[in-house]
Amino acid sequence: MRRALEAAADAWGAIQRYGAALLMISMTALYGLNVLVRALLPQYASTFAWIDEAARYMLVWVVFLAAGIALEVGRHIVIDLLWRRLGARAERWLFALIDVVGLAFCALMMVLSIQLTIFVAGSGQISPTLGVPAYVLYVAPVVGFASLTFGFLLRIFAVRDARRTPPAAAWLKGTES
Length: 177
Prior knowledge:
Blueprint: H1 2-40, H2 50-72, H3 88-123, H4 135-156
C-alpha cells in the first residue's frame, strides 16, 4: 500500500511539476510576443488581445498546481518558533492537528470548488476573448485542493512529510539543495 501511494505521489508530482513549468514557459513566451507585437507592429495588437486572458488562465493553473508541490516538499509558509521548542510528543500532536485541519479544510474547499465548477459549466458561460468554456478556469481550484488533500493524507499516513524527512520523491532526484 505504501509503495502504491508513493508511486501515485511521484506520478502526480511529476504531472504537477512539468505542467506548471510548461504553463509558466508558455505564459512568459506569450507575454513576450504580446510586448513585441505592441511595440513593433501596433496595428496587429488587437489580434493578440486573447493573450492577456490566456495568461491569466495559465497563472491560475500554475498557482493551483504549485500548491500541492509546495506542500509535498515543505515549502508552504510555516511559523516554527513554537513547535521547534516543543518536545517530540507535543510536536507529533501539533503536526497531527495541523494535518487533520488542513485535510478537512482542503477537502471542503475541493467540494465547494466542484460545486462552483458544475454551476459555471451549467451556465454555458464562454470566456470573452479565448472562446473556451469558463469552467476551465474553475477546474484549477478543484485540482489544486484535491492535490493538497492528497498531500495531507500522505502526511497523516506518514508516507511523505517534508517537516520530518527531506523530500526524496523520484521526480525530485537531482533537484535537492
